[in-house]
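thought: user wants a sequence for this fold. calling inverse folding tool.
action: design(structure=
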């Protein structure tokens, strides 16, 4: 059976280096029928054109700092039956697209969302959630790691994350795409609410995993300290107006953001004089959002032909060894990547250090930690393993989406 055609859209603004890393990881996906669409500003476009995969990518130049409008520009040229979204500061695990698209074998499934992993490569930023007209989320309990399908409602939508989600192309076009009134923040949540209002079914896929780095931007520093809350306030105001939420949520969110800023100040990451101007930005954003018009895109656009990516057909290769072999193992991994292999390096020390996972710029996955340390942060502090058995357990889980 032929795999569904998928367009993977990466939107990028002001982060050309991160974009190149994300693009390298997407190019290593273990899926047989996808194309890559990059929507980027001038710096990002230049970086993509210099990338080794450039001749296989649909490139859309887009300088306006509006993530919804940029995603719509990507949708306009995406020819896949399914459109998947990932951010420029994120990388997908090799099996991501295989898992994320599996629920679409059921024609009744309109959208799907996976889990998002944080900077340590182990802990989750976001799992399964619902969201309501007040933009409040609640955990959604799943019975296992198998995909589960839910039907949203106007009062309780199924939440997906913009950096790890997929939607049928005909569905997103019928819904009018992303609303450009959401220049940043809640853009995908607004789409979730519209999917719920229309009674569409959304699958949550725990094993479809993306690692999200929270890279610095014009709105936050590398340590996640916010520097500009205008679009947070604006998008929240738009969302509450559009979906009938309580405007009192704006005051509650302002208090949340104030406490957040004060926490950073106490920790020495912000000066006391920095707090008030950032909060003023939130207030001005709220006022702006109360005036913004809602929008949508045309639904009759015909995209250019599907540009199938030449997938790396070789299986994911694992390079395993001890910490004192690190230089040799990394050199071997680099050679394998140059030979167009997909590679994961596992380097363990005879300790109980916590495990960490990341995709490095050289183009391979790097898993580090102690032979006796915990990978699952909810597990015991000390775990007795033989090196070979520990490595085999990691390989089994990582190769299949854990």
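)
observation: tool returned 402 residues.
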């Amino acid at each position: 059976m032929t795999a569904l055609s998928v367009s993977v859209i990466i939107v990028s603004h002001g982060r050309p280096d991160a974009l190149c890393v994300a693009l390298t990881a997407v190019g290593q996906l273990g899926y047989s029928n996808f194309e890559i669409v990059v929507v980027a500003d001038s710096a990002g476009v230049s970086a993509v054109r210099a990338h080794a995969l450039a001749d296989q990518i649909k490139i859309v130049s887009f300088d306006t700092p509006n993530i919804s409008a940029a995603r719509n520009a990507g949708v306009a040229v995406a020819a896949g039956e399914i459109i998947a979204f990932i951010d420029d500061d994120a990388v997908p695990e090799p099996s991501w697209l295989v898992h994320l698209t599996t629920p679409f074998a059921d024609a009744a499934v309109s959208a799907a969302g996976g889990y998002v992993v944080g900077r340590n490569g182990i802990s989750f930023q976001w799992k399964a959630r619902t969201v309501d007209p007040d933009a409040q989320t609640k955990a959604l309990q799943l019975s296992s790691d198998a995909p589960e399908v839910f039907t949203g409602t106007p009062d309780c939508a199924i939440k997906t994350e913009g950096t790890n989600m997929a939607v049928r192309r005909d569905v997103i076009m019928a819904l009018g795409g992303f609303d450009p009134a959401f220049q940043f923040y809640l853009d995908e949540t607004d789409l979730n609410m519209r999917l719920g209002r229309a009674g569409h079914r959304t699958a949550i896929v725990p094993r479809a995993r993306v690692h999200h780095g929270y890279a610095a931007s014009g709105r936050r520093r590398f340590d996640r300290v916010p520097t500009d809350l205008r679009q947070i306030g604006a998008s929240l105001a738009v969302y509450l107006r559009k979906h009938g939420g309580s405007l009192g949520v704006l005051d509650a969110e302002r208090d949340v953001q104030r406490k957040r800023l004060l926490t950073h100040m106490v920790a020495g990451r912000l000066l006391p004089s920095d707090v008030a101007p950032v909060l003023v930005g939130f207030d001005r954003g709220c006022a702006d959002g109360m005036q913004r018009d809602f929008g949508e895109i045309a639904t009759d656009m015909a995209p250019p032909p599907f540009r199938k990516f030449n997938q790396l057909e070789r299986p994911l290769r694992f390079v395993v060894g001890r910490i004192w072999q690190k230089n040799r193992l990394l050199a071997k991994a680099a050679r394998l990547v140059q030979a167009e292999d997909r590679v994961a390096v596992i380097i363990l020390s005879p300790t109980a250090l916590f495990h960490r996972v990341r995709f490095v710029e050289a183009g391979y996955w790097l898993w580090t930690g102690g032979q006796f340390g915990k990978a699952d942060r909810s597990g015991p502090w000390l775990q007795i393993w033989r090196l070979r058995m520990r490595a085999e357990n990691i390989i089994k889980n990582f190769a299949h989406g854990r």
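thought: summarizing for user.
answer: Here is the designed sequence. Residues 316-399 form one domain.
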